Amino acid sequence: MGFPAGEQLLSEIATNGGHGEKSSYFDGWKAYDGDPYHPTENPEGVIQMGLAENQLSHDLPEEWMWKHPEASICTPEGVAQFKAVANFQDYHGLPPFRHGVAKLMEKERGGMVKFDPDRIVMSGGATGAQETLAFCLANPGDAFLVPVPYYPAFDRDFCWRSRARLLPITCDSSNNFKLTPSALQSALDDARIANIPVKGVLITNPSNPLGTTMDRSTLETLLHFTNTHRLHLICDEIFAGTVFDSPAFISISQILLSHPAADPNLVHIVSSLSKTLGLPGFRVGLIYSYNDAVVATARKMSSFNLVSTQTQHLLAAMLADDDFVSNYLEENARRLRERRDLFVGGLGRVGIRCLEGNGGLFCWMDLGAFLKERSTEGELKLWRAIVHDVKLNVSPGSSFHCQEPGWFRVCFANMDDETTEVALRRIRMFVDRESVVEKQQQKKMRFMKDTGLKLSLPRRLEELAAMTPRLPSPHSPLVRATT
C-alpha cells in the first residue's frame, strides 16, 4: 500500500536528526561494529578506542559478588528477597540504594562534603539525567552555555527531545583549554545579541574529552558568574571517581559549601556508576540538586527511565560495604594511572604528545603536526586514515566541537594489556612508515637543490614546492606538517 507523496507519518523529533548519529563520533563506532578486533578471530580488525568505558577493575566487583551471593535475588542465598524486590516500587528508589550512592559520592570527593540521600534522583544512565534536567530547567529554544570541546552526545542527551540548545564557550590550547571569565562573558553577550535566552551553564568536571579537572579558582568563577546572572549551573561529575593523579578532584559541592552566600538553588550535579565502577550496562544515572522544586519534578519525570529494583538491591549491598568501596577506589585509581602512563608514554616515544591530564578514561591527543591541511576537513581525512588504515577507532576533535584541528580523544581503559600493546604497535608502525616517506621526499628535494635539477611540474605545484621543503605523500593524510 502506497502513501501520498510528501506525507509525513513520523514526528518532527523522530525525523530531525537530533540524535547526532551521523557525526564522525558515531561513524567510528560503526566502523568498529562492522569489523571488530579480536586477538585470534579477527586480529586485523578495528580496535575500539572511541568508547569511554572502564574495564580495568571489573574483577573487583565480580570477586565481591562471588563472596556475597545473598546480594542477588538470582541465587539460592538471595532468592528469599525475590518477592520484595519484584513487587512495584515507587520512583523514589530503594532507601538503601540512595544511601549507598550518597556514601559513594562522598568517598569520590575525599570525604570533603556530605550528600543527602533524599536529594538523589535516579535515572537510566547519565543520558537520562541530563535530559531530565533539560526538561526541568529549559523551555524549547532556551540555551545552556558549554565550554568546548565537550562530549558529542550532549547534543543528543540535552537537546534532542527537550529542544533546548547548547552554545559554545570558546576555549583553546593556548592555556590548555582552561575556561576563562572573559570567555564566559563573551558567550553570554553573543547569545543576548542573537536574542537567545540563556538559562544556564553546563560543564563536565573532570572534563570529557580533556581528562583534566577544574581548579578551585575556575569553579569559583563559575559559581560567581551563574549567581550574578541568575543562571543554573549543571556540573556533570560522572568521572569524579576516575581521578588518578594530582591535583585532587574538587567538586562544585565543595565550592558551594565554602561560599554560603551563593544560591544553592541554581546548582545541580549529574553523577553515575558507569565510569567509576565500570557498570554502564546497569544504567544507573543520578541527579543531585540543591533545588527542592527540581528534585520533586525530576523525581516525577524519572518514571520514564527508572533503574530496576533488582539492580538497586544488588548495588545497595555492594555500596554498603565501606571496605570494598574504599579499596576499590584506591586500586582503580592505581590501575588507571598505570594504564595512562603506559599509553601516553608509548605515544611520546613516537613523537605524539597529549594534554597533561589527571582523570577520566582517555587522553586528548595532539596530531596537529600530522595534518596535511589545518582545517576540519584535513582533520577528518586524517581520522579516516586512522580508522580505515591503522584500524583504530579514535574520535576527532571536531566531533567534540573543538575549534582547533588536529586534536583527538583516545580511550585507553576499555581494553586489556595485550590489546593496548597491539594499538601502540599499530601507531608506531604507521608513524615509522610515514617517516620513511617523509625522509625520501626530503632526500629527493635536497638532491634536486644540490644538482640544480628541476622537475617538470605544473606551475602551481612548482609554487608549492618552493614554499615548503617537504612534499605530501600521495598515499596518506598522516604527514607531518611544516610549522
TrEMBL record:
<dbReference type="InterPro" id="IPR004839">
    <property type="entry name" value="Aminotransferase_I/II_large"/>
</dbReference>
<dbReference type="InterPro" id="IPR015424">
    <property type="entry name" value="PyrdxlP-dep_Trfase"/>
</dbReference>
<keyword id="KW-0266">Ethylene biosynthesis</keyword>
<dbReference type="InterPro" id="IPR015421">
    <property type="entry name" value="PyrdxlP-dep_Trfase_major"/>
</dbReference>
<dbReference type="InterPro" id="IPR050478">
    <property type="entry name" value="Ethylene_sulfur-biosynth"/>
</dbReference>
<dbReference type="GO" id="GO:0009693">
    <property type="term" value="P:ethylene biosynthetic process"/>
</dbReference>
<comment type="pathway">
    <text>Alkene biosynthesis; ethylene biosynthesis via S-adenosyl-L-methionine; ethylene from S-adenosyl-L-methionine: step 1/2.</text>
</comment>
<dbReference type="GO" id="GO:0008483">
    <property type="term" value="F:transaminase activity"/>
</dbReference>
<dbReference type="InterPro" id="IPR015422">
    <property type="entry name" value="PyrdxlP-dep_Trfase_small"/>
</dbReference>
<keyword id="KW-0663">Pyridoxal phosphate</keyword>
<feature type="domain" description="Aminotransferase class I/classII large">
    <location>
        <begin position="47"/>
        <end position="427"/>
    </location>
</feature>
<protein>
    <recommendedName>
        <fullName>1-aminocyclopropane-1-carboxylate synthase</fullName>
        <ecNumber>4.4.1.14</ecNumber>
    </recommendedName>
</protein>
<dbReference type="GO" id="GO:0030170">
    <property type="term" value="F:pyridoxal phosphate binding"/>
</dbReference>
<dbReference type="GO" id="GO:0016847">
    <property type="term" value="F:1-aminocyclopropane-1-carboxylate synthase activity"/>
</dbReference>
<keyword id="KW-0949">S-adenosyl-L-methionine</keyword>
<keyword id="KW-0456">Lyase</keyword>
<comment type="similarity">
    <text>Belongs to the class-I pyridoxal-phosphate-dependent aminotransferase family.</text>
</comment>
<dbReference type="Pfam" id="PF00155">
    <property type="entry name" value="Aminotran_1_2"/>
</dbReference>
<dbReference type="InterPro" id="IPR004838">
    <property type="entry name" value="NHTrfase_class1_PyrdxlP-BS"/>
</dbReference>
